[in-house]
Structure formats: structure tokens, C-alpha cells
Amino acid sequence: MDVIIKRSAIQFKNPTTGQPTRAVEEHYNGRRIVADINGEERMFRLKKDEIPFIVDEDEMIEMIEKKLIND
User: Fold this and answer.
1) Given this model, what pLDDT does residue 71 score?
2) Which of 21, 27, 34, 58 could form a disulfide with 7, with the two C-beta atoms 3.0–4.6 Å apart?
3) How far out from the chain centre does Cα 67 lie?
4) pLDDT, tens digit (0-9, with 9 covering 90-100), for 1-28
5) First vs last Cα of the chain: how many Å apart?
6) Farthest CA pair distance, the chain
7) The pTM is what?
8) Averaged pLDDT of the chain
9) What is the Cα–Cα distance from 1 to 41, expressed in whole angstroms?
10) DSSP three-state, residue 43
């Protein structure tokens, strides 16, 4: 399987309703990744329990491969 990460965006959500959201680990809610899978562009939404806040490209690829195998 050939996986190439094209874009990655961190998503944040304030745990307290009505308060402003900040780009800090406590407000981390997940990550949206756009990847090229065997020549086909696909988007993945991973929640904070599926992918850690600090992750490198190799770990993202590993998480995507796991998600594809489980689906």
C-alpha cells in the first residue's frame, strides 16, 4: 500500500462550552488528514483517542494503514 500525506490539519475544541478555543494540547480534538492512497486522494478524520497530539508523518501513515485495515 502506497500512502503519501498531502495535508494535515489539527482540530481544536474547547472543553468548556461558550469559552474561546485555543490551539493548545488541552483543546486538541483530532486531526484531518488528506492522503494519496495508491493514486487516489482520500480524507481521514481521526479523533483524539485515535491519534495523539504530537505525531510525525510516519506515525500518521501508520494510523491511516490501521484504519484502512480495520474498515
Assistant:
1) 80
2) 34
3) 11
4) 899 999 999 999 999 999 999 999 999 9
5) 15
6) 43
7) 0.86
8) 94
9) 13
10) strand
